[in-house]
Amino acid sequence: MKERKIQDECGVFGIYGVEHAASLTYYGLHALQHRGQEGCGIISVDEEGAFHRIKGKGLVTEVFKGDELSAMRGNMAIGHVLYTAAEGNRLENVQPLMFHHKSGDFAIANNGCLVNAEELRSYLENRGSLFQSTSDSEILAHLIKKERSASRPRIHTIIDALNMMEGAFTFMVMTSRRIYACRDKHGLHPLAIGRLGEGYVIASETCAFDTLGAEYIRDVEPGEVVTIDHHGIRSNLYSQFKHYNMCSMEYIYLARPDSDIEGCNVHAYRKESGKLLFKEAPAEADIVVGVPDSSLSAAMGYAEASGLPYEMGLIKNKYIGRTFIQPTQALREKGVRMKLSAVRTIVKGKRVVLVDDSIVRGTTSRRIVTMLKEAGATEVHVRIASPPMTEPCFYGVDTTSYDELISARLSVPEVQEAIGADSLAFLSEESLYVAGRREELCTACFTGRYPTALYHNSAMVKKCKCKK
Ligand code: SF4
């Protein structure tokens, strides 16, 4: 049976021109750990152009040992934290991936998901390429290798390869002398550049810069390839088509609140969305409670706008991972039971407004509402700081298949009944734009308006209601 396409919502990090690059990459990946907890890897290049690699399954603190890291020489490195869904959890898929070619070795790491991966794989396999992983990074590597000749600059080969790719990606390609940072022309996922001493850092989120004391310079633009080497930074556009369709889920749920994405702080965005949510759906209640951690900012905004006290009615066990990014439903359910507790003395006898960032399957919401009522809340009014999620994501965020999305099957009153809430309301699509003062965003999982072409391959037919 053909293996299902791997689903990544990962984190990438790169560093150029700084001593102890591998060790610094460790700290960068640690800051990006929330983007993927299934595996991680670092590849560095030393002064002789030799590549060194450590990778494994598990958390950053589990995979990298201090003595091994400090033995990784070089002032240039790239790293990756991996989230994989279901059967994609194989060591071969843990990135960065390394490739050998007569023109020189290179390494690749990616966050995102190509929508024409099946077509490109068939194209390449028909021309003799053998794949060892299900990662999109390997597709880019084979495309680069196919077109690469000694006389042709590598940047041209990379540009040709990127022009064959459709979907969401933030690739980092590292050769023995430079790093190329590439972002898809739709601008679906974030990738930022910072300055660290005399060198540069690149990361999926700016929170990684703060960890290292790096200074944010700018974002990699949609459709841009940024080359970083001893000449500094150079820019090439691989596409004239360019949009800023940032994944709205980055703001709503995925990114860390201390990150800035395309000029907008994630905490500020969420807080504003909470204020807008109150305007759209006020509730008669005594306190406002947010679901830790990603909904706390929206709950603060709701409380501020409503004048109701913001209370810590739920606490989280910090040592349990996030349920949304656990790869199986069984693990997610187990995670919810272990990670949250209602604070009885806070919620007892109170009418609670429960603010959450999103409802995917509804199982988490049902458990939390039950938990609050068991702790003595007299009413629980659920307010969701995003619209009903009705469509799957094909760009690397595991919002599961159409059948598993509760809002794709049930109306808002039916969802309210299924989760046991006294009332339920969602933020409007319009407010997603207003909260970030944005003109463009990807909102496809709420609206079905996908910013890219969709290829009717088998994985999508299985996932999407709009396919035959
Ligand atoms: S479909 Fe949803 S989760 Fe996927 S990129 Fe668009 S907004 Fe993000």
In summary, what is this structure?
The chain is 31% helix and 23% strand. The strands form five sheets. Strands 3-2-4-1-10-9-11 form a seven-stranded antiparallel sheet. Iron/sulfur cluster binds next to α8 and α17.
Bound molecules: iron/sulfur cluster
CATH architecture call of the largest domain:
4-Layer Sandwich
Major sheet: 7 strands, antiparallel
CATH superfamily of the largest domain: Aminohydrolase, N-terminal nucleophile (Ntn) domain
CATH class term of the largest domain: Alpha Beta
Q: List low-pLDDT spans.
A: 1-8
Distance between the termini: 21 Å
- Please tell me how large the radius of gyration is: 22 Å
Shape assignment: globular
Strand order of the largest sheet: 3-2-4-1-10-9-11
Beta strand %: 15-25%
**DSSP helix fraction:** 25-40%
- Count up the helices: 18
Structural class by helix and strand composition: alpha+beta
CATH topology name of the largest domain, in short, is Glutamine Phosphoribosylpyrophosphate, subunit 1, domain 1
Please provide the count of β strands: 21
Number of domains in the coordinates? 2
Mean pLDDT: 90
